[in-house]
Design a protein that fits this description.
It is built from six helices and seven strands; from the N terminus they run E-H-H-E-E-E-E-E-E-H-H-H-H. By secondary structure, the protein is α+β, with helices and mostly antiparallel strands. It has one domain: Alpha-D-Glucose-1,6-Bisphosphate, Chain A, domain 4 (2-Layer Sandwich). Strands 1-7-6-5-4-3-2 form a seven-stranded antiparallel sheet. A hairpin with a 5-residue loop joins strand 5 and strand 6.
């Protein structure tokens, strides 16, 4: 099994960072290698990634603790699992740490690929995408929590902006190919970031015990 990790400090409050990062469906908006995360139900999701080839699997949520950590485990396809922890840091910041464990595909050839650098490439890309996530959260409106309106969760090298997402992902985000134009994205980021108001939808996400759409949160007493 290969193990990789990356960490970033986001200059935003822990609860806000947690809410935005735990919405799996937004990952292709700020990650370069994630082409799809679509929900099967409130515990399971389907993933398509592009790392030394395209791979896909279904995953189930594991170890979710509100405002502290999330986790997942694959049910088929590439064997993998992961955990993301959220820690407050001064002043008013949050450390996000991602740990991923996976079995390199294709048996011996996969292990050779890991040794020759595929794993290093994955870790560099993970760190790169975490840095983009941090930048975009910092551009968000003050107190923004609603992941379904996170137009600011974009950068022009993400899978979504580059048009490398799957049809299922595009449909789940309610986006056409025209809406993924990087120039349009930049305008959307700017317009959203300067808005001083928190929408009613954002306010509805303030309580971690309120049920979320799949993959977005867990109650403070419950682990998944």
């Amino acid at each position: 099994m290969a193990e990789h990790s990356a960490s970033v400090i986001v200059n935003a409050p822990l609860h806000q960072v947690y809410q935005l990062y735990t919405h799996f469906n937004d990952y292709p908006k700020f990650m370069t290698f994630v082409k799809e995360v679509t929900y099967l139900d409130d515990q399971r999701s389907h993933w398509v990634v592009d790392i030394v080839g395209t791979h896909e699997w279904d995953a189930i949520n594991e170890g979710w603790i509100a405002d502290r950590q999330i986790g997942w485990r694959s049910l088929d396809g590439v064997k993998n699992s992961g955990r993301v922890t959220f820690e407050p840091v001064d002043p008013e910041g949050t450390r996000v740490t991602v740990e991923v464990t996976y079995e390199p595909p294709a048996g011996l050839l996969g292990h050779i690929g890991e040794i020759l650098g595929a794993g290093g490439q994955f870790e560099r890309r993970l760190r790169y995408d975490l840095e983009h996530f941090a930048q975009m959260v910092e551009q968000a409106p003050p107190g923004a929590l609603d992941p379904t309106s996170s137009a600011y969760l974009f950068h022009d090298e993400s899978a979504a902006a580059q048009g490398r997402t799957t049809k299922a992902q595009d449909e789940s985000m309610g986006m056409s190919s025209d809406s993924l134009d990087p120039a349009a994205t930049t305008s959307s980021v700017t317009a959203t970031a300067v808005s001083p108001n928190v929408s009613p939808a954002d306010a509805a996400f303030a309580d971690p015990t309120i049920p979320r759409i799949p993959g977005t949160s867990a109650s403070s007493e419950e682990t998944r």
